[in-house]
Amino acid sequence: MDNSYTFGDVTVTEQEVAQHMVAAVKTIFSTMIFIDDIVEDYPLEKPVSHFHCSISGMVGLGGAFSGMVGVHLPEDFAQEATASMLGMTVEEVDAESDINDAVGEITNMLAGEVKMLFSDKNLHLCLSTPSIISGKDYTIEVMNNNCAVIVPFYRGEQRFIATLQISAS
What we know:
This protein is of the alpha+beta class. It has one domain: CheC-like (Chemotaxis protein chec, 3-Layer(aba) Sandwich), CATH 3.40.1550. 32% of the residues lie in helices and 39% in strands. The chain has three helices and nine strands, in the order ββαβββααββββ. The protein has helices at residues 14-31, 75-86, 96-119; strands at residues 4-7, 10-13, 39-40, 50-63, 65-74, 125-127, 131-139, 147-155, 158-168. Strands 3, 4, 5, 6, 7, 8 and 9 form a seven-stranded antiparallel sheet that branches. Strands 1-2 form a two-stranded antiparallel ribbon. Strand 1 and strand 2 (10-13) form a beta hairpin. Helix 1 (14-31) crosses helix 3 and helix 2 (75-86) packs across helix 3. It is globular.
């Protein structure tokens, strides 16, 4: 069953948002990170809010609705993506700040793509600067009474997740 979300006169389906996020993530990874073998596995079987040895980038949304775009990557994959993005080997990427900057930029690019989807429907949004959370064990809770579009992706055995949480203002 496909959920729909209504903002004033505009209705957007969860499937439409998920398809846009899939296309955006694949384009970002292909053109900016030079990784072409990303495969989506939508819909997510069960919600994920607890992360182990991961890095999460988040960008807040405000305007027609409030919410958050998130990208949650395992540490090893975040380091690999950073190396590829910067034209380095994985061994050369040792600064946590470089990895955090790369994950923040990936999240920012995805948030920009989400903003375009809604802007094309005359729903205007503003984006916050990216925030990063990382650690061996942490939880990120979904906001109450909201919708969440969660799209898992795989690169080989590595799984990462792109999320959009939205709430009518």
